[in-house]
Each structure stands twice: as C-alpha cells, then as structure tokens.
Amino acid sequence: MTDNIMPVVSTPQNVSNNISCWKCGKQIEAADNYCKYCGKGQGSHIYFYYKHWGVWILFFIIGPFNLWFLWRSPIIKIKWKLIYGAVFLFLSCWVCYIFYKAVLKIFDTYAYFLNIPF
Ligand SMILES: [Zn+2]
Q: How far apart are CA 17 and CA 96, in angstroms?
C-alpha cells in the first residue's frame, strides 16, 4: 500500500521573490531583512559604512583604510567605487604631503634655533 505515497520534491515557489544575498550569494526571500545563512543585513539593513555617505564619514575617521569598506560595499556601483577610490587616494596623498611639509618646517625651525645642520 505504498503506491499512493508520492516522493516529496521541494520545488522553489515564487522564484521571482527570491534574491541572492550580497554577502554569501545564497538564495533568500526578497522580504528578508537578514540573510538566514550568513546573517548579513539586506536592503535598508545593510551597515551604514557600506553606504555612500558612510564611506565618506569613514574617510574622515580612519582615512584611506575606508577603501576596504568602499570596495566591499554591495550598494555602491563599480563606477562610483572607482571615482570615490581615486578621490580618497588623492585626498590621502594630499594630507600626507601637507603633513610632510609641516614636519620639515618644524625640523627647520628647531635646526635654526639649536644650530643643528639638517
Ligand atoms: Zn548571506
């Protein structure tokens, strides 16, 4: 009497409602706020430092180390990643140059007063 037992085949229903997680790539439902496999937030629940304004705030806090977050951002398009990356690198180099000139000036000042030939 096992003839009427059908094998249970799980077919994905409403495939169009499924999206893939930006972090692990597995299929989750579009309504999910968090991935059930890796736990990362989806949609508006993505961390602030992956958003456009977030990478700018990070730049003023941790400087060019924000490039790590910029590159991993699932929101920012590749075009903006390249533009932001170039801007952040330029600003970082500019700040380093200003700092370098300031240190040179300090050394010059001390050398003048202490008669040390730098
Ligand atoms: Zn995931």
A: 49
- Buried b / exposed e over 59-71, threshold 16 CB at 10 Å, is beeeebebbebbe
- Cα(50) to ligand 1 centroid in Å equals 16
- What tens digit of pLDDT does each residue of 44-76 get? 899 999 999 999 999 999 999 999 999 999 999
| pTM for this prediction | 0.68
- Please tell me the distance from the alpha carbon of residue 47 to that of residue 75, in angstroms, as a whole number: 10
| Residue range 2-11: mean pLDDT, rounded | 59
φ/ψ region of 112 (left if φ > 0, alpha if ψ in -120 to 50, else beta) reads alpha
Ligand 1 center to 40 CA (angstroms) = 6
Length of the chain: 118
Cβ atoms 102, 94 nearer than 8 A:
no
Q: How many angstroms separate the alpha carbon of residue 14 from the centre of ligand 1?
A: 19
Greatest CA separation found in the chain?
105
Distance from C-alpha of 99 to C-alpha of 106, rounded to nearest angstrom: 11
